[in-house]
Predict the 3D structure of the following.
Amino acid sequence: MRRLAGAGSKHSVVQDGAFRPPGAGMALLDPGGRLTGMRKLAPWLVVLGVARVVIDHYLAIDRRDRQQARRALTRSRLRPGRLTPEERENLRRIAGQVQKKRLAYEATAAAVPFPMPDLYKKKKRRRHRRKAT
């Protein structure tokens, strides 16, 4: 595979015709064997995982309620003092639709690199049998 574009060009095209953006061939390991690329990428993967969970929970709310909340928040410019009592009550009702425990669990599971125990599984209870005498 021979590069057709110069080293200083913005994009490079390889002889096989495939387009590759700048830095596409860079490995996550630098010549010293350190994970420099991965170390910079890891925090962003956590942020994207948590954002995905929050967006999923946001989309679970009814469309009309989301529009109402968005209108109230933009009208008040995110200042609680500018909300009318009706808007405040509506926002409380809409926020009550979010499953807060599940959101917290899923966001934590997305952010933590090791497996978490499933808190929502029903636990099996053992019954202690009495010895027959």
About this structure: Strands lie at 12-13, 19-20. The chain has four helices and two strands. The two ends are 83 Å apart (CA to CA). The chain has a mean pLDDT of 78.
